[in-house]
Write a structure and sequence with these properties.
Largest sheet: 7 strands, mixed
Radius of gyration: 21 Å
Shape: globular
Order of helices and strands: HEEEEHEHEEHHEHHEEEHEHEEH
Helix content: 25-40%
Strand content: 25-35%
Number of helices: 10
Length: about 300
């Protein structure tokens, strides 16, 4: 059977990680589609989730391929006695067409838009596309005593999680769980980049490599050394290394299309765009109810939980 281009979150490597997290994983390929579905639990029962999936064959009409995938997922859902299926097709299909298939728009769990950089161009052209001030910091970082290293040692994830924890306190968000990120290094698909000043970590970033794509996953910088732009230095080095290692695309993973400077994602979206590249759009997150009664109750439960969090 033809191998289809999949997002990393649809890979067997990610499936292995989900199993380490204690979840059941189901993989299937059919005519024009392939998917990895993860079984999640709620107080009302279980559902299947295809993060950035199903993958659809570009040579098949996307609507036809997605319908076949949904038929397969519906059959699996009934076998597993789950009450809905959550999908994130990477093909851009009109909302009306998705709704005709029985899908209902959900809040986006994974970003519906991302920013990518083509690494098949010459390194000179890639570097030329990066904002000059950022490039200057990268070119001169050794002169400032900044060194870079990378590791897959799970025990060193605390370097990143300590920075993320402080960032979460400052910006009022819950950072990724340390054990969660540690298991990603244990699974073997993640790499941690660290910037150090006189032997002390001042920034860190986690990346995933899969099928010719390097994904920029998590990053944080020590607030006291923010002016050194160590996070930017790491990011440029990750781009250069990815190209040198034969990767074809650098995926910055998630942007907003909002032009409102007050949007919470506006700042880092403009930051990602300053490295050159182009926007890629996905369909977003959609749900396929299997049990409409339970799915309706699930929607009510989520609304109540949101109101309680805002209270």
């Amino acid at each position: 059977m033809k191998v289809m281009k999949r997002h990393f979150l649809q890979s067997s490597a990610w499936g292995k990680f989900e199993k380490m997290e204690g979840r059941e994983v189901f993989e299937k390929e059919g005519e024009g589609f392939a998917y990895l579905a993860v079984k999640h639990q709620t107080p009302l029962g279980s559902y299947l989730y295809c993060p950035y999936g199903p993958a659809l064959d570009k040579e098949v009409e996307p609507g036809v391929a997605l319908k076949s995938a949904l038929d397969s997922l519906t059959e699996l859902a009934r076998e597993q006695k789950v009450f809905f299926v959550r999908v994130e097709p990477t093909a851009t299909l009109p909302a009306e067409e998705l709704q005709k298939m029985g899908l209902k728009k959900s809040h986006d769990l994974d970003p519906a838009h991302t920013w990518i950089l083509d690494l098949t161009n010459s390194q000179e052209s890639i570097l030329t596309g990066i904002e000059k001030r950022k490039l200057r910091h990268w070119r001169t970082h050794k002169n400032k005593g900044i060194t870079l290293r990378k590791t897959q040692d799970p025990e060193q994830i605390t370097i990143l999680t300590n920075f993320l924890g402080k960032l979460g306190e400052r910006d009022h968000f819950n950072p990724q769980n340390e054990d969660h990120l540690k298991k990603q290094l244990e699974a073997g698909f993640a790499t941690l980049y660290v910037a150090e000043l006189e032997g002390e970590p001042i920034a860190a970033a986690l990346i995933y490599d899969y099928d010719g794509v390097r994904y920029y996953a998590h990053a944080a910088t020590d607030e006291e050394h923010r002016k050194l732009m160590a996070g930017t230095i790491i990011l440029i080095q990750m781009i250069v290394d990815a190209q040198n290692e034969g990767e074809k695309v650098f995926d910055f993973w998630g942007i907003t299309t909002s032009e409102d400077p007050k949007h919470p994602w506006y700042g880092f979206t403009q930051y990602k765009k300053s490295f050159g590249g182009e926007q890629v759009d996905y369909a977003g997150t959609w749900d396929l109810p299997i049990s409409r009664v339970k799915y309706g109750l699930y929607g009510v439960m989520r609304k109540v939980n949101r109101l309680l969090r805002q209270a």
